[in-house]
Design goal:
Keywords: Membrane, Transmembrane, Transmembrane helix
Transmembrane segments: 6-28
Number of strands: 0
Number of helices: 1
């Protein structure tokens, strides 16, 4: 447990979540305008 794969998966999930949140935030800002 706690191998390099685990860290890689966590970083990948974090990157995806961050990208999705940024995309949603941008879409909401466009919708308000």
């Amino acid at each position: 447990m706690g191998g390099p794969w685990e860290a890689f998966i966590i970083m990948t999930i974090f990157a995806i979540v961050t990208a999705v949140l940024a995309f949603v935030a941008g879409a909401l800002k466009k919708g308000e305008e």
